[in-house]
Amino acid sequence: MTATMLLSACNSAQKRFNLAKKSANELLQNMNQPSALSYFETPYFNKEQMQIIIGTIMQNCDWNNRATHSYTEKLIEDKEDGNVAIFIYQYYMDCDSIQINMSYNLLNKTPQLISFEIIDLNSNH
């Protein structure tokens, strides 16, 4: 692989990572809106289950006044399965303190959300 090809591949991976980051941030901005459901594509997500989660946040939490406790991002490079971007957010809110983990597949030109998990930080598990 030439230096130009390598630089182009790195730039492409970084562009997809940045697109995934933008998508994650947009999802979180709209998490208390019904439009948030559009980010959860099948076959990765059950729309009814995501509707319940978003509905719970809309009804029980002051999402717009959440306080970010921490944020982590990571690019995992995998030559066989494609690169994956991981974003981890921790929020303090009036209803609960939670951690949100999201993963995006960066294999295609448009990053695809493939994993979304909410963890209750107040849980004694």
Report on this structure:
The chain is an alpha+beta fold. Helix content is 33%, strand content 30%. A 4-stranded antiparallel sheet has the order 1-2-3-4, covered by helices on one side. A hairpin with a 7-residue loop joins strand 1 and strand 2 (84-92).
Protein topology:
Blueprint: H1 3-29, H2 47-60, E1 67-76, E2 84-92, E3 97-105, E4 112-120
Antiparallel strand pairs: 1-2, 2-3, 3-4
Low-confidence stretches: 1-8
Shape: globular
- Biggest β-sheet strands, sense, barrel: 4 strands, antiparallel
Number of separate helices: 2
Instruction: Report the span from N to C terminus.
Output: 48 Å
Alpha-beta classification = alpha+beta
Q: Give, in order, the helices and strands.
A: HHEEEE
> Which range does the strand content fall in?
25-35%
Number of DSSP strand runs: 4
Task: Summarize model confidence as the mean pLDDT.
Answer: 84
Strand order of the largest sheet: 1-2-3-4
Radius of gyration: 16 Å
Residues in helix, %: 25-40%
Oligomer: single chain
